[in-house]
Amino acid sequence: QVQLVESGGGLVQAGGSLTLSCAASGRTFGFYAMGWFRQASGKEREFVASIRWNAGSSSYADSVKGRFTISRDVAKNTVYLQMNNLKPGDTAVYYCAAQVYVGSQYGNWGQGTVVTVSS
Fold it and tell me: Which partner for 96 in 22, 28, 45, 53 could form a disulfide, CB atoms 3.0-4.6 Å apart?
């Protein structure tokens, strides 16, 4: 079983930056990919970014392309989300999750970390 713990959220002004971290413990080998998702109040959870664990290739939602960067440290079993030029619309609870196999659903959701962007 994999446990994921997010950190790094907080309150920031529009235009500011934050870096989120997601540390994995437990059965951490063999991940296919890790992803960041977010859920704003009253809205459904949405995909933000993902990274293939071995290859390092990444993908992003159109809404964050050019502003957010996902990366991972394999030795630390940690995935990061660098968020620049934050907008009030980025306010949400951010979650990380693991995709264990190709084509499998994301799971092992963390508890989330709150990001609030003030205008």
Answer: 22
pLDDT surpassing 90 at residue 9: yes
CA distance 57 to 86: 23
Are the beta carbons of 70 and 81 closer than 8 angstroms?
yes
Cβ atoms of residues 115 and 94 within 8 Å: yes
Report the pLDDT value the prediction gives residue 25, as an integer from 0 to 100.
86
pLDDT of residue 60: 98
In sequence order, what are the beta bridge partners of 73? 78
Q: CA-CA distance, 51 to 62, in Å (whole number)?
A: 15
If you average pLDDT over residues 78-101, what whole number do you get?
96
Q: What distance in Å separates the CA atoms of residue 111 and residue 119, rounded to the nearest whole number?
A: 26
**Residue reference for tokens 């071995």:** 54
Strands (E), the chain: 2-7, 10-13, 18-26, 33-39, 46-52, 58-60, 68-73, 78-83, 92-99, 113-118
> Are 42 and 111 spatial neighbours (Cβ–Cβ below 8 Å)?
no
